[in-house]
Structures are given as C-alpha cells and as structure tokens.
Amino acid sequence: MSEIVLASASPWRAQMLRDAGLEIQAEAADIDERAVDEPLRKANLAPEDIALVLAEAKAGDVSNRHPGALVIGSDQVLDFDGEVFVKPETIEQARANLLALRGRSHQLHSAVVCVRDGIAIWRHVASATLTMRNFSPEFLGHYLTWIGDVALKSVGSYQIEGEGIQLFEAIEGDHFTIVGLPLLPLLGFLRDEGEIET
C-alpha cells in the first residue's frame, strides 16, 4: 500500500478521511487558486470542470514533493445561476454573497482527483443542490458575528456541520459532497487500487 497524502489544509477533509479509517498525511498545496481559476471563469468553463482543474492542480503540486505517494486533491465550486462564487475576502463580501443566495437554490460541485508521480489517475466530481431559507438581515448579522472569520474559509460562507445549517430550508445531495470531498466514490477507487481493504 502506498503513502496517502491529502493535498489540503482543510481540517474537515483530513478528519473525514481519518474517521473513515485511512492513515494519511495532510499537506497544503502551494498554488495561487485565484490565479488558476480566474482565467477558467473568464473562459466560462463549466463550474464542475473548474473544480476538477483546481483539485488536480493541488494534487499535482503536492505530488511533486512525495514521489510514489497517492495524492488526493479536492476542490469545491459554488454555482449560483451560472455565476461561480469564490471564498470571500471580507466579512462584507460574505454578507453580500449570503444575501444574494437568500431564499434561492445553488449548487455545490465537489471534485476529487488522485495523482501519483505527477499524473492524474482518477477524477470524480459530485454535485449537491442547497436552498437557503429567506432569513432576516438581523439573523444574518448575528450569524456572521457567531462565526467570525470562519465565514472566509468556504465558498458559501457556511459550514453545514455547524451554525451554517440554520441558513437552509432544503438540501439535496450527499453530506460528504457538501462538506467538500465525495468520500464514497473515493473510497471505492482506493479499494479498486488495493490501497485499502476490500
């Protein structure tokens, strides 16, 4: 079995894999995500494809430092009526994004790519549809105060595993996809590769 490395600084993704029984290392990729995705968005690449390109770029970068290892890269893109949202840089931008999403549905596209020695050997993208409730501006203010800078750590400024669940009235899709790593397909691939027990 190979060394398995998660190309991510996300504690949620790492914990998800460890909770599933995998022994992994985690190492953040050293790439400028905005420099990678901005030309893709300008070229109107499909949101699912943007997520795949970013996931592969992260895994490829970390793979260069771990010869022979199986490196898992992942990324998530929020698609709101064809507009791709990126992580907000300020609380005010997070507020504006959440007000735009209020009372509407959007899609999250979560991609995972496995790379060995710089070559992508498996790619997968999964999608979920989330509908926000028509919350009051006052609630939004309280919510952003509760979570603080955590609002800047995800494309939607919410974490459904925490207080962010209160923003929603309906969710269609796999929990693991929503939190940013399509776990069941990934585990299936790892079993097929002989990296984990069948």
TrEMBL record:
SUPFAM superfamilies xrefs: ITPase-like
Catalytic residues as annotated in Swiss-Prot or TrEMBL: 75
GO MF entries: nucleoside triphosphate diphosphatase activity
Record's subcellular location: Cytoplasm
EC numbers: 3.6.1.-
TM region(s), chain numbering: none
Enzyme class, first EC level, given as a word: hydrolase
Record site feature (Important for substrate specificity), residues: 12, 76, 161
Keyword field contains Ligase: no
One Pfam family named in its UniProt record: Maf
Top-level taxon in the UniProt lineage: Bacteria
Family annotation (InterPro entries): ITPase-like_fam, Maf-like
Keywords: Cytoplasm, Hydrolase, Nucleotide metabolism
A GO term from the CC aspect: cytoplasm
Cofactor(s) essential for the protein: a divalent metal cation
GO biological process: nucleotide metabolic process
Recorded catalytic activity of this chain's protein: N(7)-methyl-GTP + H2O = N(7)-methyl-GMP + diphosphate + H(+)
Family, as annotated: Belongs to the Maf family. YceF subfamily.
Function of the protein: Nucleoside triphosphate pyrophosphatase that hydrolyzes 7-methyl-GTP (m(7)GTP). May have a dual role in cell division arrest and in preventing the incorporation of modified nucleotides into cellular nucleic acids.
Name listed for the protein in its UniProt record: 7-methyl-GTP pyrophosphatase
Organism: Breoghania corrubedonensis
Lineage: Bacteria, Pseudomonadati, Pseudomonadota, Alphaproteobacteria, Hyphomicrobiales
